[in-house]
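Thread title: Can someone regenerate the structure for this chain?

I was given the following input by a collaborator and told the matching structure tokens would be attached. They weren't. Posting the sequence so someone can regenerate them.
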Amino acid sequence: MGDMSDAPLDPAGPDAPTPERRRSEWAEFRHSYPGLVVTMGIALIALLAMDVWIMAKRRRYEAEIDRLRAAMTDFERRRTDQIVSQEQNKLRIAIELFRRQSRLEKGIHLSVSIDSNAMYLEREGALLREMPVQIGPERRVGVAPDTVRLAPPRGVRTIARVLTDSESYELPTWVYADRGIPTAANRRLVGALGPLALLLDGGTIVYTMPSAGPLNDSGYVLPGAVRARAEDLRAILPNLTAGTRVYFY
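Best answer:
Regenerated them for you:
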């Protein structure tokens, strides 16, 4: 019997796919699903273009900051850094105070954690229900010069009104422009804010997904607003009345 000790071994094994086989499988896949391949290619190009755009904007902002700081004296630069640091600390302290105040609130109330995308039903520090929510982005809306910047609120609000799906609500014109759809002749729609919605003082809205209308889009959240699940709002509705406090932090 011959000596097999010097015979070369294939580390991948006899059943490992060869480069020719892999190329054949890829060609067959492209032939079977040409639309999917094109879509994947377009998505990849779009992602790369977005990355390039973000990096270009970042470099532009950094260059502008460097230019402005170069025009300052040493005293102005130190003063600016001190002011920015103080403002950031003030915001962090304010958010922590709102968080602590919500835990000490004796009455039943809602708390919304902006960073955690969560809403809590609480009473005297006890967590009664935790609910996932989606927070609308900060965005400038409207048509110049009549524009306004909407941002998720911070602080304390109160419930002004509970809206059900049998009641109508007039959506502002900027919602249609923000969605890129024509403005409806009648902007007052029944169930425009979903099966349930909470209208807070100051204009903040906690709404649910409607079955029709401009807000019937899972990928779009009203800027500066909070979107909750309908089943969650239904579950806590008996505990909510006009005047119930809502803490945002």
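The two ends are 81 Å apart (CA to CA).
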